[in-house]
Each structure stands twice: as structure tokens, then as C-alpha cells.
Hints:
The protein has about 120 residues and is an alpha+beta fold. It has two domains: about 1-30, no CATH class; about 35-115, no CATH class. Helices cover about 45% and strands about 10% of the residues. The strands form two sheets. Strands 1-2-3 form a three-stranded antiparallel β-sheet, with no helix packed on it. Helix 1 packs across helix 2 (about 75-95). The longest helix is centred in the middle third of the chain and has 22 residues, at about 35-55. It is elongated and about 70 Å long. The structure holds zinc ion (ZN). Zinc ion binds near residues 35 and 36.
Amino acid sequence: MKPIHKFNNGNGATLCHNCYIIISDGLTNDLICPDCLAKLLDLKGYVGELVKMLESVEISDSEREFHPTTIQSCRCMQVARLQEIMPKISEIVKGGETKEYTQEEIDEIVNKTHYP
Length: 116
Ligand SMILES: [Zn+2]
């Protein structure tokens, strides 16, 4: 991701990628303003809670494991996309680096976490 540079009456300015306010006078490598960074960290926390709910497993009275919280869709293309993005979202909110998954790894995560 590259910084957003604008010519601010010839002085140059660097804009936030999220809200487009001027982060700094001059052309710097800054990408995001402090307010948006704080909001992104809040968002990471909220998404982390959501992932935790989706990954939680309980045992039924008949000793069967189940996921009390799931995402469902009757649109197969959206289900396919969820299967692609949920492992990446999970990895990001857990603080790891994103990586390209093999289909086997995706299937393993999907089976383990029951998305959707
Ligand atoms: Zn911003």
C-alpha cells in the first residue's frame, strides 16, 4: 500500500487512506491517521470476538460437538467466498501474518471451525 500524496498548494501533503484528512504536511510514508488507527484496532478486537464466537464448540446432551454460532447463506458463491476469507480474517485478528492457504488447509480450518 502506497501513501496518498497530494499537492497542497505546492507544499505537498500526505492523506489518510481511510478518511482522507491530511496526516502530515509534506510527502511522508504515513498511511493512516491516529484516529483511524485507533478505530482499526477497535475493529480488530470486535472481529476477534466474532471469530471466537464462530469457533466456539459446545457438547450437546447426546455428547455431540456443535457450533452454537454459525454464519449461513443460501447463496453458494457467498459461501465459497466466506470459506476463502474467514481463515484469513481469523489469522489476522489472532495477530499472525496472512498467507496463502492450500485447499487442504482451508478444508481443515473450515471443518474445524464450521464456516458456515
Ligand atoms: Zn483517518
